[in-house]
């Protein structure tokens, strides 16, 4: 009997140790996959199992990146694309939420434009690229517009349906205190929809990258999308893959930031 | 003096298939400080009736007057089946929701909130979020929120129905004591016969489709002075319970035939 507290404690310690061990094993496996992917790539490229002209190799990519980093040109391209993506993401998301709020405010409007929203949502937005570029000129604005337009409609639809899904009884409570429509929106509808809004952030991060890269394909002046299309034209696939690597890294960073924002905004 | 009166209230709901009459020709009056219950099967328009009294719905026909005036929305408190505390607000913020909406949060109101929370036994969780509280505690916080705006009339829409039995009995006592202390006129909707008898002065039995008042029972004076829990133990409680039970049973048979 005397030993029971100490055994309870040791059991708890064992439990902690087990958790830690599992965490470490997951990390190790992730590293193994990472390392074997790149070494296999390098090896098969050198042994010509795959065409090195087409698939390049990790060492060639890192050499190229190093060269481009020394002359500083890569940073300019990264900065341009990053700026456009963040701006496109913010613009698309904010516009989408504002549109959703407008639809919530005017229920009749939402019924009227419902079929148009469905059509706009189904349409591939990148197909609007040529028109946007001619309308806004081949520069930052049209690329940012591409990054925004690709996410704005789906954000509107998803956020609006979240607004509609808020339990009517929260509204009832507020109305029993004499709340007006704006207060109902601010106190119940918007905060209750935060989880959905955050999840549209996550989707929109990815979508904005698509819009911006396609925009840069079309405009072909600078940015990582331009590097990809340029590399394709001069048949330099090391450049294409290097740009892809950078995109992957920054997309992951943006996603992580959104996830951190999520943890900060949603509690309980 | 008559505090609340309903004059020939009728309400219809419309849908594409047609219309349903939720309530038909309900008239009654309630004295100030009285506790009244509506008892009836589902579909007897209990919640519709409360929404009309609260001013959230306009009846198709009939009028509601409070102290001979057309009702004004703001001095009515509403408690729902679930607590509907806002999960992203602390208990204190939830309790202060009424003053917050009405734009008059003062130091005095904040002190009053603390005082009510103390009376209700929630002083230790003022800064907690609703998800950290048990069902009974949450419903008590909802009561505090309702009392904060000092409503003259309290509407209770099955506020104990989602709780376990023991919590429910305890909360009945607390609510009854708080409402007596603050001299509120209250209207309880329930399908629990025992609860209706234990808490009220008058019990209206409603029948369904369309909802209308089938019978009115006065709870004997000596039961009214007891707490709900004591009332449930009293011999006369059972007699009244049996009478109301038979009445409801008969209504059900009638509606089937």
UniProtKB/TrEMBL annotation, chain A:
Which Gene Ontology cellular-component terms appear in the entry?
plasma membrane
UniProt keyword Membrane, yes or no: yes
GO annotation terms (biological process): transmembrane transport
Domain (ABC transmembrane type-1): residue spans on this chain: 74-258
Localization per record? Cell membrane
Chief place where the protein resides: membrane
Xref: CDD domains: TM_PBP2
Q: Which UniProt keywords apply?
A: Cell membrane, Membrane, Transmembrane, Transmembrane helix, Transport
Entry membrane topology = Multi-pass membrane protein
Which residues are listed as membrane-spanning? 26-44, 86-106, 118-137, 143-163, 227-258
- Family to which the UniProt record says this protein belongs: Belongs to the binding-protein-dependent transport system permease family.
Name the UniProt record assigns to this protein: ABC transporter permease
From TrEMBL, chain B:
Instruction: State the Gene3D superfamilies in the record.
Output: P-loop containing nucleotide triphosphate hydrolases
The record's section on Pfam families has: ABC_tran (PF00005)
Pinpoint the ABC transporter domain residues.
4-233
A GO term, aspect molecular function: ATP hydrolysis activity
**Key word Repeat present in the record?**
no
The record's InterPro entries line, in alphabetical order, gives: AAA+_ATPase, ABC_transporter-like_ATP-bd, ABC_transporter-like_CS, ABC_transporter_ATP-bind, P-loop_NTPase
Query: Keywords in UniProt for this one?
Result: ATP-binding, Nucleotide-binding, Transport
Keyword ATP-binding included in the entry's annotation: yes
Q: What is this protein called?
A: Spermidine/putrescine ABC transporter ATP-binding protein
Q: Which organism is it from?
A: Pontibacillus chungwhensis BH030062
């Amino acid at each position: 009997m005397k030993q029971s507290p100490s055994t309870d404690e040791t059991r708890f310690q064992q439990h902690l140790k087990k958790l830690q061990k599992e965490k470490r094993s997951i990390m190790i496996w992730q590293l193994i996959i990472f390392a074997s992917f790149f070494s296999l790539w390098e090896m098969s490229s050198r042994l010509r199992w795959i065409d090195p002209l087409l698939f390049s190799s990790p060492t060639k990519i890192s050499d190229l990146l190093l060269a481009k980093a020394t002359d500083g040109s890569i940073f300019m391209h990264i900065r341009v694309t990053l700026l456009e993506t963040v701006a496109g993401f913010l613009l698309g998301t904010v516009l989408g939420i504002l549109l959703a709020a407008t639809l919530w405010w005017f229920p009749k409007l939402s019924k009227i434009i419902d079929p148009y929203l469905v059509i706009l949502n189904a349409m591939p937005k990148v197909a609007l690229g040529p028109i946007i570029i001619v309308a806004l000129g081949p520069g930052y604005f049209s690329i940012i517009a591409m990054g925004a337009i690709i996410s704005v409609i789906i954000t509107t639809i998803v956020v609006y349906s979240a607004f509609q899904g808020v339990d009517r009884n929260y509204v009832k409570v507020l109305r029993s205190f004499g709340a007006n429509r704006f207060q109902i929106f601010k106190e119940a509808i918007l905060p209750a929809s935060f989880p959905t809004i955050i999840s549209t952030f996550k989707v929109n991060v990815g979508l904005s990258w698509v819009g911006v890269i396609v925009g840069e394909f079309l405009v072909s002046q600078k940015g990582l999308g331009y590097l990809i299309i340029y590399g394709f034209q001069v048949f330099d696939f090391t450049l294409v893959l290097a740009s892809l690597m950078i995109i992957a890294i920054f997309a992951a960073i943006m996603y992580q930031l959104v996830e951190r924002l999520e943890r900060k905004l949603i509690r309980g | 003096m008559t505090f609340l009166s309903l004059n020939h209230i009728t309400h219809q709901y419309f849908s594409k298939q047609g219309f349903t009459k939720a309530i038909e020709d309900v008239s009654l009056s309630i004295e100030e400080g009285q506790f009244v219950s509506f008892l009836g099967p589902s579909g007897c328009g209990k919640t519709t009736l409360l929404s009309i009294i609260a001013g959230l719905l306009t009846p198709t026909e009939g009028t509601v007057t409070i102290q001979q005036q057309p009702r004004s929305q703001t001095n009515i408190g509403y408690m729902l089946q679930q607590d509907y505390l806002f999960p992203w607000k602390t208990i204190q913020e939830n309790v202060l929701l009424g003053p917050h909406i009405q734009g008059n949060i003062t130091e005095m109101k904040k002190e009053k909130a603390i005082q009510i929370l103390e009376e209700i036994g929630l002083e230790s969780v003022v800064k907690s979020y609703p998800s950290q509280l048990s069902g009974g505690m949450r419903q008590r916080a909802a009561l505090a929120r309702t009392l904060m705006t000092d409503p003259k009339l309290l509407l209770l829409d099955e506020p104990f129905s989602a709780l376990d039995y023991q919590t429910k009995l305890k909360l009945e006592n607390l609510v009854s004591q708080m409402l007596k202390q603050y001299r509120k006129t209250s209207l309880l909707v329930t399908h629990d016969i025992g609860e209706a008898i234990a808490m009220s002065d008058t019990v209206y039995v409603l029948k369904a489709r369309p909802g209308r008042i089938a019978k009115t029972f006065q709870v004997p004076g000596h039961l009214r002075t007891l707490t709900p829990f004591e009332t449930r133990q009293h011999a006369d409680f059972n007699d009244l319970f049996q009478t109301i039970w038979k009445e409801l049973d008969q209504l059900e048979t009638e509606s089937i035939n």
